[in-house]
């Protein structure tokens, strides 16, 4: 069963063809990062226009590269939300148009659930119970799942998302956009113990996060150093910030895991590409009895393969689909208690 | 009107008290640097409007978050936008002209395009947790 996936929730335009929810035939990602760098961030209006320009050619290229006939496509999967107003709409509209003209179902996929699904495209499989951490520019969520059909959110951020904090700290340090990789790179040269930055809510006793305080602390630190006429040690601050942020992510993840003794731990979303997070999670003794799944870098950032993959699994399991030509994109799409 | 708050909770309480007095179509323009408490102020607005969601989180990434309370609450964040023509065509007027209360972070990027009834709120850091908040009603009331 061949599924065409379309992802336009933020600044990547992506089209993929995935077979049986597992095998990636092609996963094309047109990044708009160069376009956004001049603004220091994602500009929704620029994003939606750029999606519009490259999306249809990407679909054509995906079919050409694989030699797949459009008649062999069983369904069109698209990101229905959460994401940016305008950007989502471009993908949803093309997906519906294709589904209508090819007479196949259109399947709306929750972008966050697709992030958790990503490792399956790298040949992994979930065993339950499962604990998942979704960390991206817009989200920081802990999910606990007893099965594919029982998955609840057990923790989330109370203010800023982890990836948003990386972006804003990168801006404060003049490290550029996108902030995640920039902080990661700078931190490699830095001393993470020189500045002790706050670990928001690390001892709150629940599984929620807060990244607003550490962002503000970085701002104060930078201002104080500037006022003292010192040069800003960007690498040391980046390393201190990254360590503080990762400390909290790992602490909450291990606390969630401690509650259910999971057989699988999954980390998904753009921040899952962070080298310190990957290292610390793989070394955490509390997680040693679980299989820790983190997708390869190309599947951590936004991509359409995860969208097509998850839709394939939905079709295979025969559950209820968010489908039909009437489904609207939803920038604030709520979580439903399942992994699909 | 100028008020100094000494904690994020005091900022939220101030905002909650303010929005309780507001009616449909109110617009709050929030200005202040990173970490000055704009999202915190918006969280207080949500509380004052009786929004039931557990958390009102930063809309930096998704641009707009919508909540329902005594009145609809629209929380908008223009951090990622360049001022000028890019903001046109985003459909923000739908919120500004709607029946809810709209709070806009980084509202200075919309300079000159906000309705005359907009309440201007600027936040400045006066210490690690102290914030100096000035609230200007239209017409200098």
Structure description:
The complex is a heterodimer of chains A (340) and B (141). By secondary structure, chain A is of the alpha/beta class. Chain A has 2 domains: 2-117 and 299-317, 2-Layer Sandwich (Nucleotidyltransferase, domain 5); 128-297, ATPase, nucleotide binding domain (Nucleotidyltransferase, domain 5). In chain A, 41% of the residues lie in helices and 20% in strands. Chain A has helices at 33-37, 44-66, 87-102, 111-117, 162-172, 179-188, 212-227, 234-260, 275-283, 297-300, 305-317; strands at residues 2-7, 12-19, 23-31, 73-81, 106-110, 130-135, 140-147, 150-156, 264-268, 291-294. In chain A, helix 3 (87-102) links the parallel strand 4 (73-81) and strand 5. Chain A starts with a strand and ends in a 23-residue tail after the last helix. By secondary structure, chain B is an alpha/beta fold. Chain B has a single domain, classed as 3-Layer(aba) Sandwich (Rossmann fold), CATH 3.40.50.300. Helix content of chain B is 21%, strand content 28%. Chain B contains 3 helices and 7 strands; from the N terminus they run βαβαββαβββ. A 7-stranded mixed beta sheet of chain B has the order 1-7-6-2-5-4-3, with helices on one face. Chain B is globular and about 35 Å long.
């Amino acid at each position: 069963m061949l599924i065409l996936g379309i992802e336009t929730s933020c600044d990547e335009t992506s089209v993929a063809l995935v077979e049986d929810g597992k095998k990636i035939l092609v996963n094309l990602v047109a990044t708009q990062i160069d376009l956004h760098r001049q603004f220091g961030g994602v500009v929704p209006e620029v994003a939606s226009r750029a999606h519009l320009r490259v999306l249809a050619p990407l679909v054509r290229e995906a079919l050409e590269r694989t030699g797949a006939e459009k008649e062999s496509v069983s369904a069109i999967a698209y990101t229905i939300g959460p994401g940016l107003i305008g950007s989502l709409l471009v993908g949803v509209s093309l997906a519906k148009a294709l589904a209508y003209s090819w007479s196949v179902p259109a399947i709306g996929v929750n972008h966050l659930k697709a992030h958790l699904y990503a490792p399956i495209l790298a040949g992994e499989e979930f065993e339950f119970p499962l604990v998942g951490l979704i960390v991206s520019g817009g989200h920081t969520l802990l999910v606990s799942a007893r099965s594919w059909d029982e998955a609840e959110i057990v923790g989330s951020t109370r203010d800023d998302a982890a990836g948003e904090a990386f972006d804003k700290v990168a801006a404060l340090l003049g490290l550029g956009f996108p902030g995640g990789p920039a902080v990661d790179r700078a931190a490699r040269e830095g001393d993470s113990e020189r500045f002790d930055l706050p670990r928001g809510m690390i001892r709150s006793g629940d599984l929620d996060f807060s990244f607003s305080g550490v962002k503000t602390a970085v701002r104060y630190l930078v201002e104080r150093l500037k006022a003292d006429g010192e040069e800003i040690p960007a690498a040391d601050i980046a390393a201190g910030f990254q360590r503080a942020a990762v400390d909290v992510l790992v602490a909450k993840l291990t606390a969630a895991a401690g509650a259910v003794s999971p057989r699988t731990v999954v980390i998904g979303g753009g921040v899952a590409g962070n080298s310190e997070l990957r290292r610390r999670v793989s070394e955490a003794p509390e997680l040693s009895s679980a299989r820790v799944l983190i997708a390869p870098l190309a599947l951590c950032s936004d991509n359409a393969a995860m969208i097509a993959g998850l839709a394939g699994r939905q079709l295979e399991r025969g559950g209820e689909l968010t489908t039909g030509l009437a489904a609207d994109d939803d920038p604030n799409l709520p979580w439903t208690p399942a992994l699909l | 009107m100028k008020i100094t708050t000494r904690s994020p909770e005091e900022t939220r309480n101030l905002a909650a008290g303010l929005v309780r007095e507001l009616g449909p179509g109110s617009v709050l323009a929030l200005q202040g640097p990173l970490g000055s408490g704009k999202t915190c102020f918006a969280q207080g607005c949500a509380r004052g409007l009786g929004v039931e969601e557990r958390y009102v989180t930063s809309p930096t990434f998704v641009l707009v978050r919508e909540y329902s309370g005594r009145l609809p609450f629209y929380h908008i964040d223009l951090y990622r936008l360049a001022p000028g023509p890019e903001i046109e065509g985003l459909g923000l007027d739908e919120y500004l002209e709607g029946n809810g209360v709209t709070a806009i972070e980084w509202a200075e990027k919309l300079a000159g395009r906000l309705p005359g009834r907009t309440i201007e709120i600027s936040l400045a850091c006066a210490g690690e947790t102290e914030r100096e908040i000035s609230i200007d009603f239209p017409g200098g009331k």
